[in-house]
Amino acid sequence: MDERRDPPPDGQDRAPLVAAGSRLPTVQEAYAGYTEHFLACGDCRDPDRSCEVARELWRTYMDVGSQAARQVG
Q: Cα–Cα distance between 70 and 73 in angstroms, integer?
């Protein structure tokens, strides 16, 4: 059948994947903070150095994850 087809959408009429003003769950925000710091920090990328900021961000991520697991279970 030769039915006319509408052109594919160009993406401008689609709703955004994430609503404006929305936030990630707390655990994901904590992990994002750690990974953003790690990728930008020279000390973090050097295996012979340590970074106290990354250590604290990782500790925060682990604490938030433990709290979330306790709430679920």
A: 5
Q: How many CB atoms lie within 10 A of CB 37?
A: 16
Contact 29, 23 (CB under 8 A): yes
Q: Which helix (H) or strand (E) holds 64?
A: helix 52-72
Backbone angles phi, psi at 64, to 5 degrees: -65, -40
Separation between Cα atoms, residue 72 and residue 36, nearest integer Å: 27
Residues 25-40 have pLDDT tens digits of 899 999 999 999 999 9
DSSP for residue 17: S
Q: Distance between CA atoms of 65 and 59, rounded to whole angstroms?
A: 10
